[in-house]
């Protein structure tokens, strides 16, 4: 059977702080690897002549939109 572990306030706060730091590291690493990848992919598509729409949009704006769409799926799995 599972049992509840009682932690004092300082241990709980330390655990919460560690979880927060871990989440921040994961987000930073994901962004550090994902943004250059998406940016290069968008730049190559632009050079190949594949545009996402009729209005000219910055490559950075397109890459940011792609990264914003991908990041939630990374943290789900």
Describe the structure.
It is built from 2 helices and no strands. With 77 residues, it is mainly α. Helix 1 packs across helix 2.
Task: Outline the fold blueprint.
Layout: H1 9-48, H2 59-76
Keywords:
77 residues
Quick rundown:
This protein is mostly helical and 77 residues long. It has helices spanning 9-48, 59-76.
Task: Tell me the series of helices and strands, N- to C-terminal.
Answer: HH
Overall radius of gyration: 20 Å
What is the average of the pLDDT values? Answer: 76
Largest sheet: none
Task: Supply the number of helical segments.
Answer: 2
Please state the structural category. Answer: mainly alpha
What is the helix content? over 70%
Q: Judging from the principal axes of the Cα atoms, what is the shape?
A: rod-shaped
Low-confidence stretches: none
Strand content: under 5%
Terminal CA distance reads 28 Å
Extended strand count: 0
């Amino acid at each position: 059977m599972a049992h509840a572990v009682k932690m004092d306030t300082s241990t709980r706060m330390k655990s919460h702080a560690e979880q927060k730091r871990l989440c921040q590291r994961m987000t930073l690493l994901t962004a550090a690897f994902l943004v250059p990848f998406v940016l290069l992919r968008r730049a190559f598509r632009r050079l190949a002549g594949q545009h996402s729409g009729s209005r000219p949009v910055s490559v950075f704006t397109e890459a940011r939109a792609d990264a914003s769409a991908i990041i939630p799926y990374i943290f789900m799995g």
